[in-house]
Design brief:
By secondary structure, the chain is mainly alpha-helical. Among the domains are: 40-75 and 542-646, no CATH class; 84-191; 218-302 and 330-397, no CATH class; 763-820, no CATH class; 828-926. The chain has 44 helices and 2 strands. The radius of gyration is 44 Å and the shape is elongated.
């Protein structure tokens, strides 16, 4: 056979596979942990109490606040997910390559064939297929293993000893078919055959991989020699060889010394895998020069390049498998073996060349042609010396390479038992893997993930932290930082993430999490700066934008909103609520399904923003089906505030009332406090007092303060005085409050704006001098308060009389305010939205074009929500009588007896009974 078989198609296919495996291994190492770990996005909900409305009541300021939802998103590493198709493909290639080796063994001389067969028997026995329960076999039985050995070696022995005529490819195909059918049946018997085979064949194939590395370890030096001496008569070959060879071996020696801890360097001089790639590529050409030595082992011609491609492909597939499955102990072990082989065989081969060929090199002879011929320093002796050197460095390093191989096997076994559902046993294998392969990323990550799911944060933190020490991944760093955060050790989490950023400087995921932790730690400036400069994350998420909107208020972009993920929309709407910017969320019902944390947060923020009918319909639908009282309360509260801000006061109070039934004691108190503030805002202080009293019963701290103000608004001086005493009992130093409030309570006119605000009836609306002493805004406030109290008392005519006089005295620029104050046009729908807007309701009731039944229905709703309104109660009495239901009017009449002074009640009673008599007269006339 020729030395260059590259002209036949099978060889070209083998070379193509070999090169593809080299490229794939490089790609797998580049992608690293991303092959078997994925990003998981974890959302955290933040409720930020936000002032949505501020209003003044005299000198006091009130805020209507609601919890606005914001979401932060951080990345975490998923559980290890090994892609089965990749594992199947790689193990299939190993099996096909192994069948090729079996076919090759039929070309060996009998001695070497039996040596090879013995190794195969050991390998197949170690697979221990009986433990998988194949064909009902049990652990400890060996009959399946015996059958497996016979199926593998039977055809091989037949082709070697009885029928060596078939071509190599035919033998390869037949052995592949026989063993393939058996393995297919075994896989049907137990689908976990793949994981089991990976674990149980690991050490055997690792030994073959080491043999391959030994096989190519001197090829770089031989390639250098070939380049130097291929041209006869070239000069200074010995110098070039010594210089380049010396640098190469020196770098290897320094790298090994650093690995062995003999010296300390800040960087790796050589990447062992790059060294292996280079040796393998050079060997594709130079391995042919060993053909004549290779022939000494054969009883039939066989191309050494085919043998090289077979064992090389199996070795590369095995390394690809370790990279794809994330078994870094496997990766580390081969790191050592590659260096050992190149240092041992390569170093001794360099000495072999200098000792035997220094003179021919000086004379410019083509030394590469005679390198493997008989010499004074035999080649076989150099190989033995190389093995001794390899053994020496192996033992000096305390057999760490072998320990890591064993650790890798434990990791593969852990993967198998994890896939079979035996988690405790799997974790024990991973624990052993972490012992043999110290700081193995795979072992510790699996353990950390296991304990995380068990809720053991301390153990999870320990193992995730250990997984970052030797072969760190972004995922391990982020899980470690998250575990620190769960323990509320934010500073430690930031330290881990800073270290992660130095190792993975362009990771948007790490930068995202670092920004969130900085923000949590109070360093908002650094957090925003990190997000501004953050690298990209995967396209399926908008985490950086989500967190950017949480931490600040970027420039609004309508297009971004339309295409935003739900968490991003939550934060964009939340930002609008922060800045009190009105915006129609334009959400479709499908965006709010299914009901999750994200959609609930979005719905609540959207409710707070506006009065979208579709949103409230969707909210009501969710409320009717959702079983979570907490979420339902939040939704109702958001509806109430949003409706109130949009003018739907009636619906707002109904929603808050419903929310109170879903709350605990303190929650009820806070809702009643909110309802009291809303009632104050609407000019219904007596109703506010009722709510604040309820809030006080449930332990709301500000209740006395609120009751004092509501008492002032309702001119309930005794209540205000008692509430002030309660406040002073807690803080007796609040003299300023006492000095400002007591004159008002006791009716001591100190000519202050606050006094006239709370006692507007004492303000002289006909005195130009007094009016001129009051600022424009204060005068408006006192007038509004006068209108409220006068309407509440039912003295509407007093308002118009005072207004006519006031218009003649105020600044001309202010006249329009007072002229139009009571003349604003209202339609029926607006009046029906707010039971506290008494003046428009009075005007509507005077409208003869509106159906009496509609008026009655509106008033029923109004007196239920605003039971202290004298004008509304009066209108209800007359409307009920006119509608023919006087018995209902009697209820409102009795309510008025509680609210009106005796003189006013007598006057109203005369009107009331007069209306009753009219109705009765009309009824008799009809009869």
């Amino acid at each position: 056979m020729s030395l260059t078989p590259y002209d036949n198609s099978i060889a070209k296919i083998l070379i193509g596979v070999f090169l593809l495996l080299l490229i794939t291994l490089g790609c797998f190492q580049y992608f690293g942990a991303h092959l078997y770990l994925n990003w998981e996005l974890t959302s955290s909900l933040h409720k930020e109490m936000t002032e949505l409305l501020t209003f003044d009541k005299g000198p006091f300021n009130f805020t209507i606040s609601a919890p606005v939802n914001f979401i932060t998103e951080v990345f975490l590493g998923s559980s290890v997910t090994q892609t089965r198709p990749i594992g199947v493909l790689l193990m299939l290639l190993i099996w096909i390559g192994s069948c090729g080796l079996l076919a090759f063994s039929t070309h060996l001389k009998s001695f070497w064939f039996f040596i090879f067969s013995g190794i195969v028997i050991l390998f197949l026995n170690y697979m221990d297929l009986d433990s998988l329960g194949i064909f009902g076999s049990k652990e400890g039985a060996k009959w399946v293993t015996i059958g497996w050995v016979l199926l593998v070696l039977g055809p091989t022995y037949y082709f070697h000893s009885f029928n060596n005529k078939p071509s190599f490819l035919i033998k390869w195909g037949i052995i592949s078919i026989i063993t393939g059918l058996f393995l297919a049946i075994c896989n049907l018997q137990n689908p976990l055959l793949l994981q089991w085979s990976i674990a149980r064949t690991h050490l055997g194939i690792a030994a073959l991989t080491f043999f391959f590395v030994l096989f190519i370890s001197e090829e770089l030096l031989f390639g250098l020699l070939y380049v130097l001496t291929k041209t006869r008569g070239s000069a200074n070959n010995e110098k070039h060889l010594i210089v380049f060879g010396g640098v190469y071996l020196g770098a290897l020696g320094l790298f090994w010394s650093r690995k062995a801890g003999l010296i300390d360097f800040e960087f790796d001089i050589i990447n062992p895998y790059y060294l292996m790639y280079a040796s393998a590529l050079v060997a594709l050409y130079t391995i042919q020069f060993k053909q004549f030595m290779f022939n000494q082992f054969l009883n039939k011609d066989f191309e050494i390049t085919w043998f090289f491609l077979l064992i090389g492909s199996i070795a590369l597939v095995h390394l690809n498998l370790g990279a794809a499955y994330g078994n870094d102990a496997h990766y580390d072990a081969m790191n050592y073996f590659i260096i050992y082989a190149h240092l041992g065989f390569g170093g001794i081969f360099f000495i072999y060349l200098i000792v035997n060929f220094i003179d021919p090199l000086v004379r410019g002879l083509q030394v590469y042609k005679v390198v493997y011929t008989e010499q004074s320093f035999p080649y076989i002796t150099s190989k033995i010396a190389g093995l001794i050197l390899i053994l020496a460095v192996f033992l000096i390093a305390d057999k760490i390479a072998y320990k890591k191989l064993v650790g890798a096997e434990y990791n593969y076994s852990g993967d198998y038992f994890k896939a079979s559902g035996e988690l405790p046993l799997a974790m024990e294998y991973f624990r052993q893997g972490s012992v043999f392969a110290w700081d193995s990323h795979h072992s510790h990550y699996q353990l950390g993930d296991y304990y995380l799911k068990k809720g053991n944060i301390d153990k999870s933190l320990y193992h995730f932290n250990r997984s970052t020490k030797r072969n760190p991944s972004e995922f391990a760093y982020l899980n470690t930082a998250d575990a620190y955060s769960k323990k509320e050790e934010t500073t430690s989490a930031i330290g881990v993430l800073n270290k992660a950023q130095s190792d993975f400087f362009n990771s948007g995921e790490i930068q995202n999490n670092l920004a969130v932790r900085y923000f949590e730690n109070g360093n908002q400036h650094s957090a925003r700066q990190i997000l501004e400069n953050a690298g990209p994350t995967d396209q399926w998420n908008q985490a950086i934008l989500v967190n950017t909107w949480f931490m600040g208020t970027p420039e609004w972009d309508s297009e971004n909103y339309l295409t935003a993920t739900i968490p991003l929309k939550v934060n964009m709407l939340g930002s609008n609520l922060r800045s009190k910017t009105s915006f129609n969320p334009k959400l479709s019902p499908t965006e709010l399904e299914p009901f999750t944390l994200h959609t609930a947060a979005l719905l609540i923020n959207a409710n707070l923003l506006g009065d979208s009918i579709a949103l409230h319909i969707q909210s009501d639908k969710i409320l009717s089906t959702n079983k979570s009282g907490d979420w339902n309360r939040e939704i109702l509260n958001s509806q109430a505030i949003g409706l109130f801000l949009a003018g739907y006061a009636n619906d707002a109070f109904k929603k808050l009332d419903a929310a109170s039934t879903l709350s605990d004691a303190l929650g009820k108190g806070l809702i009643f406090e909110q309802m009291g503030k809303l009632a104050l805002h609407q000019g219904a202080p007596k109703l506010a007092i009722d709510f604040f009293i309820k809030a006080k019963r449930y332990g709301v701290l500000m209740s006395d303060y609120n009751l004092m103000i509501a008492g002032l608004e309702a001119q309930n001086w005794s209540l205000s005085k008692n509430s002030l005493k309660s406040i002073l009992a807690i803080d007796s130093s609040n003299n300023q409050l006492t000095n400002s409030i007591m004159p008002i309570i006791e009716g001591l006119n100190n000519q202050s704006v606050a006094y006239y605000y709370y006692r507007p009836e004492e303000f002289n609306w006909t005195s130009l001098e007094q009016i001129s002493l009051i600022s424009t805004n204060d005068l408006r406030s006192i007038w509004k308060r006068y209108v409220e109290t006068t309407l509440d008392a039912g003295h509407i005519e007093d308002i118009t009389d005072k207004m006519d006089l006031l218009i003649t005295l105020v600044n001309p620029a202010e006249k329009s305010f007072y002229e139009n104050y009571l003349d604003t046009a209202y339609d029926w729908e607006e009046v029906g939205m707010n039971a506290f807007n008494e003046w428009p309701m009075i005007k509507i009731m005077d409208d003869p074009t509106i159906d009496l039944q509609k008026k009655y229905d509106l008033l029923i709703d109004a007196i239920e929500l605003n039971p202290y309104s004298v004008p509304i109660l009066k209108m209800y009495c007359f409307t009920a009588i006119q509608l023919g239901v006087p018995e209902y009017a009697d209820t409102a009449y009795m309510r008025l007896r509680e609210l009106l002074p005796e003189k006013e009640m007598n006057t109203f009673a005369q009107m009331y009974y007069l209306e009753q008599r009219k109705r009765m007269a009309n009824s008799k006339e009809w009869l």
